[in-house]
């Protein structure tokens, strides 16, 4: 294999993460991945030819990454390139799919499965089946908006009907959809239910991870969205036991942003790092189901951590994104704690640093249990101990409803057995 120090990725999957497919990109351990990502969610959701809810980059093989290892993905830069987008709540159209509107949309007139489509005009009737010309969407927007961005100011603004329709007529240019993307731009529909809303931009990656050990639609590579695959009749149908093959790359955790480090499990040789679903902003929970999907340029640095055996992602957020109780102690605080401990026969203080485990499941309760169990298994302690530590030195935070959470707490350095991981954590928090 020809491993490169820097890999430029500008090709996309058909929304399927398939471990059987060959890798077209190969990067050195310690090298960089630069990608022009395509918008996620709504664009692919109105593009029936895509068999999943996103259009992520083709995975990158990382030198030396073997099953049981992990890849520390350092997010060095995220730049939004879209000048506009559209979004809103969704409602599936039951006549326009078989099992799952993300995976197997079908034309209600001719019955074509995952047909190519053509755009004719703008608005909710603009997407047409290429086979028979029927206007159809797998999803409707129940309440939506079109938003333009002023990246210099870090602001987004929602538009009225006239301006939304102006954007719709030149959607590819306003969204700066990458050349190799096949999605229909969501601004074509020109939703405009909310006008004059101002929002702060804080971009992050809704999709970042590694290839699962079974084929998954990209948006379903998580414990909550994966539920839709259980018993499905299409080729990606799963059993409950099959979900263990996921890598939870679809997180929608808004702390997966510039400056953070995501430590992704390796479940296939080379890992297969993929990127997508960049958002301009999102509150915890993504309660609307969707947010501001944008195109952008991402720069990552990757390094292999041997034999880590983490079953799901581990996140090292930017320090300011940590829960208050999980922030590393300052030198002054630690000295105060040492002085206090002397009053109690010099009890030895723990040395600790933050760590955040991603948990996913069918509900927030199941996701929390998953995150607690992953933390306990990884650190070799009990779930009740993780519960105590997350309660007094951290927090459970919602990534996405219905079932993605982060379990964050201060972990004693003595129970973090992998020296390379410990080095990465210390670097992240300048210790």
From TrEMBL:
Q: Top-down, what is the taxonomic lineage of the species of origin?
A: Bacteria, Bacillati, Bacillota, Bacilli, Lactobacillales
Q: Which residues cross the membrane?
A: none
Q: Which InterPro entries match?
A: FmdA_AmdA
Q: State the Gene Ontology terms under molecular function.
A: hydrolase activity, acting on carbon-nitrogen (but not peptide) bonds, in linear amides
Q: Name one Pfam family in it.
A: FmdA_AmdA
Name by which UniProt lists this protein:
Acetamidase/formamidase
Species, as recorded: Facklamia languida CCUG 37842
